[in-house]
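User: I've been trying to design a sequence by hand for this structure and keep getting stuck. Would you show me what you'd pick, starting by listing the structure so we're on the same page?

Assistant: Good idea, let's start from the same input. This is the structure you sent:
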């Protein structure tokens, strides 16, 4: 993977982990329920794509795991 090909997208390619999220949801007759959660975001190069005859595109695949 070249930074030139992916330009600003190169900075987000990789695995990102978060482990301190809180889901706040209303509960009928009980007020509010707080549920901790974690997630993993994976962004990986998906390769180049030909578009028409004069354009070249690069795609990033995104996957989220909760």
């Amino acid at each position: 993977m070249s930074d030139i090909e992916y330009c600003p997208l190169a900075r987000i390619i990789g695995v990102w982990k978060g482990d301190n999220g809180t889901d706040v949801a209303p509960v009928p007759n009980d007020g509010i329920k707080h549920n901790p959660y974690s997630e993993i975001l994976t962004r990986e190069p998906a390769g180049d794509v030909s578009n028409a005859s004069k354009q070249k595109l690069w795609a990033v695949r995104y996957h989220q795991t909760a």
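That's my pick for every position. To get oriented when you compare it with your attempt: Residues 3-65 form one domain. The two ends are 27 Å apart (CA to CA).
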